[in-house]
From TrEMBL:
Domain At1g61320/AtMIF1 LRR span(s) in chain numbering: 14-248
Lineage of the species this protein comes from: Eukaryota, Viridiplantae, Streptophyta, Embryophyta, Tracheophyta
Record-linked Pfam families: LRR_At1g61320_AtMIF1
Protein name: At1g61320/AtMIF1 LRR domain-containing protein
Xref: InterPro entries: At1g61320/At1g61330-like, LRR_At1g61320_AtMIF1, LRR_dom_sf
Length: 282
C-alpha cells in the first residue's frame, strides 16, 4: 500500500493521511500477513489485535504517533521488519521478545536516539543513521550485519563511527558477515585518537568470516593511518577469511590527486584480501 501524496516535497510530519490500523481488526480473526505503508501517519496502540499472523511489516516515511511497542507485541509471527525514514519515535526500545524476527532494517529514521530489540533468532540486521547506542538481545544467530553511519562529519568527535561499529556494539560480535560504511574528516592525524579504543576491544568476533569496510576520508594529504588502525582490529577476528577495504580519499581545498600504497595483512585464516583505494581532488 502506497499513499504517496500527489504534490511534491511533503515530509512525513505534515499533510499526510492518517491510516486507521484499527480498520484491519477482523471480527473473525486476524488475516493480514504482509503490510507495507508509505507516507502516512499511524497511531498504534496495544488493543489492536489484527496482526497476530503478520509476517512482514514495512513502514517507509511513516509518522508514528502512539505505542509502537504495543503494536509489535501483537505481531507474534513477525519475521521481517523495516523502518525507513520514519518519525515520531525517539527510542526504538522494544521491551518484549520478537521470537520469530529474522530480518531487521532501520534506516534514516528521524530523531531516533537509541535502538534496542530482543530478537533471539535474528539473522540479518541493517542500520543506517547517526552513531547511537544499539543493543540486540538474542542468541548467536546473526548471519550478516550492515552499518552505515552518516552525519559523522558534523559531530564533535567526527571520527568515532568506525570505532563505534567495531567496539561499541557488542551484540553484533556473533555475526559471520560485517559491512561497515562511514565517513571521516582529517583535521589532524585521523586515526591517532582511535587506535587505543580498538586495541582494548571488549569483545571478539569469533564467528566473523567476511569483513567489508567502505570509508571516505576528507583529508589534506596522503597517509596510511586507516590501514594501521584496521590492522589493530583484525586481531579481534581470528577466523576472518575475506577482507575487502574500500577507501576513498577526498582532498579538501585542493585539486590534486595521489595514489595510495597497497596494504597486506597476514593472518592465520585470512585467505583473500581485496583493497580498492580511489583518490580524487575536491
Amino acid at each position: 500500500m502506497n499513499l504517496w501524496p500527489k504534490r511534491n516535497n511533503v515530509g512525513p510530519n505534515r499533510n499526510i493521511y492518517r491510516f486507521p490500523l484499527e480498520a484491519l481488526d477482523a471480527q473473525d480473526g486476524p488475516f493480514i500477513q504482509s503490510l507495507f505503508l508509505t507516507n502516512v501517519s499511524i497511531e498504534p496502540h496495544l488493543v489492536i489485535c489484527g496482526f497476530m499472523r503478520l509476517k512482514k511489516l514495512h513502514l517507509h516515511r511513516v509518522h508514528i504517533i502512539g505505542d509502537l511497542p504495543g503494536l509489535l507485541l501483537n505481531c507474534s509471527s513477525l519475521e521481517d521488519l523495516e523502518l525507513i525514514a520514519c518519525s515520531g519515535v525517539t527510542d526504538l526500545n522494544i521491551p518484549h521478545q520478537l521470537d520469530k524476527l529474522r530480518h531487521l532494517l532501520i534506516r534514516s529514521n528521524i530523531c531516533v536516539q537509541m535502538v534496542e530489540f530482543r530478537v533471539p533468532d535474528l539473522s540479518h540486521f541493517e542500520y543506517q543513521g547517526d552513531v547511537i547506542p544499539i543493543v540486540l538481545h538474542g542468541r548467536s544467530t546473526l548471519e550478516e550485519v550492515t552499518l552505515k553511519f552518516h552525519n559523522a562529519l558534523f559531530d564533535r568527535d567526527n571520527n568515532r563511527a568506525l570505532s563505534h561499529a567495531i567496539t561499541g556494539i557488542p551484540s553484533i560480535s556473533t555475526a559471520k558477515v560485517l559491512n561497515v560504511h562511514t565517513q571521516m574528516m582529517e583535521d589532524r592525524p585521523v586515526w591517532s585518537s582511535q587506535v587505543h579504543k580498538l586495541t582494548r576491544s571488549a569483545c571478539m568476533f569469533l564467528n566473523l568470516r567476511h569483513l567489508t569496510c567502505r570509508i571516505t576520508i576528507f583529508t589534506r594529504g596522503s597517509n596510511n593511518h586507516a590501514r594501521l588502525l584496521l590492522a589493530h582490529y583484525l586481531d579481534s577476528a581470528p577466523r576472518l577469511e575475506t577482507l575487502q577495504l574500500h577507501m576513498s580519499y577526498v582532498v579538501a581545498g585542493g585539486s590534486h590527486c595521489w595514489h595510495g600504497e597497497q596494504a597486506s595483512f597476514h593472518m592465520y585464516r585470512l585467505d583473500r584480501l581485496h583493497e580498492w583505494v580511489p583518490f580524487r581532488g575536491g
